[in-house]
Amino acid sequence: MPVTATPIPCLSDNTAWLLRDTASGEVALCDPPEVAPFLAALEQRAGGRCDWIFLTHHHGDHVAGAEELARRTGARILGNAADASRLPRLDLALRPGDATPMGGRMLDTPGHTRGHVSYWFADGAVLLCGDVLFAYGCGRFIEGTAEEMFSSFRRFDALPGNALVCCGHEYTEANLRFCRSLRPEDPVLAEAAARVAALRAAGRPSVPTTLWEERRANPFLRAATPAELLRLREAKNAFRG
Ligand SMILES: [Zn+2]
User: Fold this and answer.
1) What's the total number of domains in the chain?
2) Cα 66 to middle of ligand 1, angstroms
3) What φ, ψ does residue 84 adopt, rounded to 5°?
4) How far is the CA of 137 from the centre of ligand 1 (A)?
5) Burial of 214 (C-beta count, 10 Å sphere; 0-12/13-18/19+)
């Protein structure tokens, strides 16, 4: 039985995730930057249970709630051993390629930060990709290069199209404005913009999307070379749309 993922909006535009393993009953959070909305979500959706806190990278808007949530719920924190010195205290320090609790696997996905990792749960097709891949966008190369981000995207090539892209921010509308500035006549992007506008107007998250959708519509994921990815990222940085 699969892992399911529910987006938990937090801070101004972050998205953390609540995972449930429907076979074992285990519950996890990914990248909680604060405490209150997660205690409420755990209470409402999981009877207060939380077994694990998965971390993708060390930025405060992804980790600041982790230690207090672990204290309050008994959850154990897991993340990339190579980045342990700047992550919250890890109860389980893993290396990319390792199996994770709840049937997942840690993937090495640098580019946004050096130690950024993603998590893939094949049973449930859940991809926790933090600030590497966004819906119709990608993360900034804060500590990494276009080559690293490009190679991280290539790790996703092996995953199926139905993979749910569970990313770390609600940037979708702005990302689509940039995409449509590149391809104003593209009906796929027009349809996506209408769908996302309706979700946001209803107060609902726009994520997850799927890898299938990103492969056909996300110019960053579609970039053929690191140089093209770099050009796109620089154009997005300068874009005021
Ligand atoms: Zn970040």
Assistant:
1) 1
2) 15
3) -60, -30
4) 14
5) buried
pLDDT of residue 1: 57
Spans of the chain, pLDDT less than 50:
none
Is the CB of residue 45 less than 8 Å from the CB of residue 199? no
Which domain, by its residues, includes 7?
Answer: 3-94+104-238
Alpha helices (H) along 167-210 = 172-182, 187-201
Q: What spacing in Å lies between the alpha carbon of 57 and ligand 1's midpoint?
A: 7
Position 241 scores a pLDDT of 76
Residue 47 lies in a domain: yes
CA distance 79 to 84: 7
Q: In this structure, are strands 27-30 and 14-21 parallel, antiparallel, or unpaired?
A: antiparallel
Residue 134 resides in a domain: yes
Rounded Cα gap, residues 32 and 72, in angstroms: 13
Q: 99 in a domain, yes or no?
A: no
Q: Tell me how far the alpha carbon of residue 54 lies from the centroid of ligand 1, in angstroms.
A: 14
Instruction: Find out whether 13 and 170 touch, Cβ atoms under 8 Å.
Output: yes
Phi, psi torsion values for 123, nearest 5 degrees: -85, 95
CATH number, domain at 177?
Answer: 3.60.15.10
62 CA to centre of ligand 1 in angstroms: 7
Distance 168 CA to ligand 1 centre (A): 8
**Residue 211 in contact with residue 160, Cβ under 8 Å?**
yes
Give the span between the Cα atoms of 73 and 236, in whole angstroms.
40
Q: How far apart are CA 116 and CA 119, in angstroms?
A: 10
